[in-house]
Amino acid sequence: MDNDEDRDAPAAPNGVSLGPLPGFIGYALRRAQLVIFDDFIRTLETVDLRPAYFSTLIIIDENPGLNQSEVSAALGVQRTNFVTMVDHLEKRNLIERRPSKKDRRSYALHLTEEGRTLLDKARQLQAEHEARFARKLGPNGREQLLPLLWKLVE
Question: Which PANTHER family match (predicted)?
Fold first, then answer.
């Protein structure tokens, strides 16, 4: 890594040397993820929603009738952890479980009217959050960053 790349990396607090860490893709991604998630958590606090619950509501809204296994797989969440999330969202009357038309042994997930109203508010907050970080990236930064990140997922 040449020194030009080092200039864009933030300095560590108290003059602590980060050595080669700023040049590691994983380190930079993790630091960026922490900053972005911290902002997103604070943003969604106004509607009492966590990022994982927001993602769950999005998937259910876009795909009404999926069962818990399908939603948890789409999000990459372990099924055991997902059951707790579904229980929480159901207790808040944001989603409901209905008998599945495809499989009588499972339940289909649907947003309630309350869930749809909350998700609409949360989507607006997410758009503001996204705009804050797009501004930080500058013109076309978001459009350049997203395809690069998705290449890492392939």
Answer: MARR FAMILY REGULATORY PROTEIN, TRANSCRIPTIONAL REGULATOR, MARR FAMILY
Neighbours of 21 (CB within 10 A): 14
- Asked if the model's pLDDT at residue 6 lies above 70, the reply is no
Q: How far apart are CA 31 and CA 33, in angstroms?
A: 5
One-letter amino acid of 111:
L
pLDDT tens profile 98-153: 988 887 788 999 999 999 999 999 999 999 999 999 999 999 999 999 999 999 98
Q: What is the pTM of this model?
A: 0.85
Domains in the chain with CATH codes: 20-154 (1.10.10.10)
What six digits make up the tokens of 88?
Answer: 């929480």
Mean pLDDT of 65-82: 92
**Which residue spans within 26-120 are E strands per DSSP?**
95-99, 107-111
Retrieve residue 125's tokens: 């907050």
- H or E element in which residue 69 lies: helix 68-75
